[in-house]
Specification:
Blueprint (H helix, E strand, L loop, with lengths): L2 E2 L1 H8 L3 H9 L7 E2 L6 E4 H15 L4 H13 L4 H41 L2 H21 L2
Antiparallel strand pairs: 1-3, 2-3
Helix pairs in contact: 4-5, 5-6
Amino acid sequence: MTSVTIQEASRRSGLPEPTLRYYEEVGLLGPIARDSSSGHRRYSDSDLDSLQVLACLRAIGMGIDDMRTYQANRARGRSAAAEQRDLLERHAVLVEQQIATLTVHLDYLRTKADLWGARDRGDSAAEAAAARRVEAVLPRLQEVSR
């Protein structure tokens, strides 16, 4: 069984040390064993596995409450499979919405850059065409900004 320091656990998981402490504090992880002589945290293989899962959930933008539910379902195993699937599907829908929003943002940025590029070149025909494309993007931008 592995027993590593918080520094090593941070390195392996990619999560900052304060995040590891916070995850323990809010019940996402642990309690983490302590070295009997120094009182320093010592992370087991199981803790490192949980940290890897939490690092992935954090990377996809999952919130603390959903991470907590995910961890609880993970501990329950197969009996929580449907709930776990539903949680991930709900989060996938949120990510799809974020992608759609970012796509509109990107379209707006590109069309505005085209507009300013045409202005920079003194190309009034290209500027007018870009202005029409900007106008076409604006309703979508306003919609995703609500």
